[in-house]
């Protein structure tokens, strides 16, 4: 029987791979070699969860004893190096996989923070951090202004999902229901933004 | 009665808000949306203290259970987004608030490091890190060369204040006196640099 | 009698100074003042080991009670500020000192990770991180695309050295022998790359 947690775990892997591939595509823009591809993919795929766990003091880090995560990311990075043109054709797919990963990471980041004793506001912040820090690191290391910060409704979707999850949990809603609700909110907002080209008004001189 | 610690606490909040506003102004230069404003303000306002506590192993982090800090920073960021032109008129004020915050953070950063068992030299370094890391992170994320590092007497003022505090503490001076002396040194040097346009000689080819 | 560990310790210092000097030379390119030189040198010299220990939860950090490390780095940075033209003549020397430091850091980083209970793959990754993170931080703060990631066989050499060390340890080889073998592999690959101008093929549109 397919359990709820095994579905979450599958989404988790999909999201991590989507993050790793987006890192490898950034490495391609910088004309790195294959080792650079792997390192940027690792940074992007594991960055958010690593910062979250450092801030919460959750040691040892989850990937220190999970060689399969490193292997999956390395394989994804090498695959992009070898077959990037085809991946670019699949960029549309990537955006959706990334959105799914973002939705899950925002909710699970908030949950882990709550369990570690953070207050609700800090939990929402950690949800956003978990969902976005990998992508921010990727862009900072590749010397670009992080796209997450300047474009599209990404942080806002993560924040809304984390806020929804935290609110439901605090009002006593069952954990699995709150996870689904938070993910639906985050993914829904992000999906609408992708589909209809929504973006928040940027700051403008007045 | 106004206690010494409540004055320090007020200065702490003023400094954090000054850092947050400087982050929001950097977000304005990058034309981010309002969520980006808040994230950069959070990074700038909490970055220095967070790195200090991570390096010293002081967990849980101070802001995990202090929602009022996050709220103050978010309000400051939104206020800049809405009313930035007026804030730019107030940029002069900001420089002074930032100098006050820097002076306090340099001294308190050194104190916390001493209490955590760091040796005096590491304590001075952590004072400088606490006072400057938020601003460095802000500029790195916004893809600019950190101004702190290239211009004006900022790091030097923080270093002098932290060194003064550490020296006085090691020679047995009462804590509150050492705090005031360290802050006066850091703020005084920075204030003179702002007022008279002082800067250290940059590196020059010879 | 010259012990094996005292030789390693000397190489460690040489590597740290090489990293610090490369940081100061980057500060020179950005026309920083002398305090900026010292800060960039500290970041470059201590960054890799600091991240490694944060990820592994090895606190208190090694440099919190080792003022002599900070002093050596600060002296190196000031020396570059004062006498950079001569250091540039010595850039060839620097590349070799950096290669030696990289080889040692890759092996020791992997060893420390193994001792802290990381699995073999995570240990290799931490070897690479320890050898490269200082240089990556240096370039990120100075707003350049990290050269390590885009050019030359650097990460690959660190990875090969760490992998060699980890494999030998897991097959029961005596520690000192494995350290020497790992360093020879890492240094040898890097030296050949420097000497013969080897590089991996960068990603190319096809």
Automatic annotation (TrEMBL), chains A, B, C:
<dbReference type="GO" id="GO:0005886">
    <property type="term" value="C:plasma membrane"/>
</dbReference>
<feature type="transmembrane region" description="Helical">
    <location>
        <begin position="34"/>
        <end position="51"/>
    </location>
</feature>
<protein>
    <submittedName>
        <fullName>Trimeric intracellular cation channel family protein</fullName>
    </submittedName>
</protein>
<feature type="transmembrane region" description="Helical">
    <location>
        <begin position="178"/>
        <end position="198"/>
    </location>
</feature>
<keyword id="KW-1133">Transmembrane helix</keyword>
<keyword id="KW-1003">Cell membrane</keyword>
<feature type="transmembrane region" description="Helical">
    <location>
        <begin position="121"/>
        <end position="141"/>
    </location>
</feature>
<feature type="transmembrane region" description="Helical">
    <location>
        <begin position="63"/>
        <end position="84"/>
    </location>
</feature>
<comment type="similarity">
    <text>Belongs to the UPF0126 family.</text>
</comment>
<keyword id="KW-0812">Transmembrane</keyword>
<feature type="transmembrane region" description="Helical">
    <location>
        <begin position="6"/>
        <end position="27"/>
    </location>
</feature>
<feature type="transmembrane region" description="Helical">
    <location>
        <begin position="93"/>
        <end position="115"/>
    </location>
</feature>
<keyword id="KW-0472">Membrane</keyword>
<dbReference type="Pfam" id="PF03458">
    <property type="entry name" value="Gly_transporter"/>
</dbReference>
<feature type="domain" description="Glycine transporter">
    <location>
        <begin position="10"/>
        <end position="83"/>
    </location>
</feature>
<feature type="domain" description="Glycine transporter">
    <location>
        <begin position="96"/>
        <end position="168"/>
    </location>
</feature>
<dbReference type="InterPro" id="IPR005115">
    <property type="entry name" value="Gly_transporter"/>
</dbReference>
<feature type="transmembrane region" description="Helical">
    <location>
        <begin position="153"/>
        <end position="172"/>
    </location>
</feature>
